[in-house]
Amino acid sequence: MTDRERILAAIRGDVPDRLPWVPRLEFWHRARLRQGTLPQELRSLDLVEIADKLGVGCYSVVPDFTDCDLATDMLDRTLGIFSLPVLPYRVTLEGVDRKVTRRGHETIVEYHTPAGSIRTASIFTEEMLDAGASMSWVTEHAIRESRDFDVVGYIFSHLKVEPQREGYLERRRRVGDRGIVIAYAIGTACPMHHIMKEFMPVDQFFYALHDYPEKMQALAEQMEPFYDGIKRCAADSPGEVVLLGGNYDDSITYPPFFRKYIQPPLRDYAALLEARGKYLMTHTDGENRKLLPLYLETGFHVADSVCPYPMTSCRFDELMEAFAGRVAIWGGIPSVLLCEGSATRDDCRRYVGDVLARYGRSTRLILGVSDMVTADVEWDRFLYITEQIARLN
Length: 393
Hints:
Blueprint: H1 3-12, H2 26-35, H3 47-54, E1 89-93, E2 97-103, E3 106-113, E4 116-123, H4 126-130, E5 137-140, H5 148-157, E6 159-163, H6 166-175, E7 183-186, H7 191-199, H8 202-211, H9 213-236, E8 241-246, H10 255-275, E9 279-283, H11 292-298, E10 302-306, H12 316-323, E11 328-334, H13 345-359, E12 365-370, H14 379-390
Parallel strand pairs: 7-8, 8-9, 9-10, 10-11, 11-12
Antiparallel strand pairs: 1-6, 2-3, 3-4, 4-5
């Protein structure tokens, strides 16, 4: 089987010829390029070629947010709006004037609308760049006082969401049989989740939800057409698997919040995709223990970036048992096990050996590093995992 066939077999619940191993290497690659410390034999290769050389699947799940025209496609990053070529849609702001100021790695954007103006700012620090970060840090959020709700609501009610396929199809041609290119919808599951993640710090979000419930609900309703457009474009795209939503944590997107705001749109979208013979993936990289029962009720098909103990409280066995062959797990290797300062080599080998002994012939498992292979990985540990998986044949 090819890596593409192995991944799809695992998602369907079939048993692939060997365990799919699809690590996310882009952060490690960017950081090592910047530092000049890539292994010699990989220095002239891109990530697709590196996956080929290493004999691993080519990761194309969460897009590389640096693989675009940063001056235009990431301009509205502080609003949670992205226009990367690989996405199955493109967003255009209408009736909005922008003033953009750049100071080094900082970007300031002022949005002027008939409803008023807001200012946002984001930055890449040297530390972030050294770590291979792909997303800037928001230093000035879109909503800082009650009048800002009207401005953000105006912006989102005057967006145009249009389908695009060329970038996705080009990426799929480039990846070929080395992996599967996920149709990435958006990293938040619904408007209220979007408001929480993108428009204000999380503590301020919960204050606002208490102090301004009508404004919060009105804004979420103004954003619904934006979400409907994205979901329609993603469902109509050539992608067999669509990613919607992520970054859940049972202390922030706690069970009652998840049940009220996040579960219904995920459940509806999973049913829509299933009726079309497609699959819904969502990005479950946080503390999941109290959310596991809700995940099963929601009906999505792939839990992406599953991150077990010691990075969360859930051990890998618990996660495999909880999903019980009903949801495919993508992930499973905590990134800290690959790093000298966080775990010994014996810790890493013992964990990998146990996982492969128990689940090396399992279905509904695509092994990956959660959330990514980091810049400080010990390369021989990574190669050890690859070698052990190859020996399963």
